[in-house]
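Complex record, two chains
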Amino acid sequence: MVEFVWAFLIGGGMCALAQLVADLTPLTPAHTMVLFVILGAVAAGLGLYDPLVRWAGAGASVPLPGFGNVLVRGIFTEVAQRGPFGLMTGGLTASAAGLTMAILFAALAALVARPKG
Amino acid sequence: MGRLRANPDQQRAFRRLVGRHAPPAPLLRNLALAFVVGGSICAVGQIFMNGFLGRGLPPERAGAMTAVVVVLIGATLTAFGLYDEIVRLAGMGGALPISGFSNAVAAPAMEYRREGWVFGVGAKMFTVAGPVIAFGLLASLAIGAVYVVLGLPLPK
């Protein structure tokens, strides 16, 4: 049960932090999304993000910094396995499932649904 | 005749009364909504994460599958016109979770279908997702390159 509390608190905390950035700086929501992916990648590069994922589960992996973490972890994994070639393959390999399905579901939504108004 | 002046006690009471009835500061309201809605989406994600881990998936696979499920939920709510309302209400609480990324892909895909499948759906679905993917990849590539060039031990 406690993992739900941490997922809620950490995930909610990241969203509130992003809201603070969006409200107090000239950055648009899209800029803020890009910024937080980069922040997640940097945190992963410092080895800080994976402990957060182990601790907060979906609270760390579902927000966009978790996407930056997946990219960096994927690169680390493939560099360890195949050397520098992994720099070019690891990011997209690790994030392929989410990206592929986001594109599929968007195409299906465009096929069957009409935008409101 | 002197101006009528409330004594300090009355002034304090007046400020308390106004404070109780004034709408909360928009910033605090925005932060609270982003926190509660974003946290709730993550808690829903945790239900699926637990399910995948319980079926014996390794943590990285369970995380990827959780992302896929949350992406599916985001795209479905977008198709019904509901996710745009969540973002309107909760701001980054709706946009920052991966369901918000999914919404950013699906909403323009639906909106621009009238401009055709190639330049409408195919191109416009990346209006926001494109920068997110591009700069995410560039950042992760740069970080990986630092480790490779300097020969640093990779964080395990």
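Note: DSSP finds eight helices and no strands in chain B.
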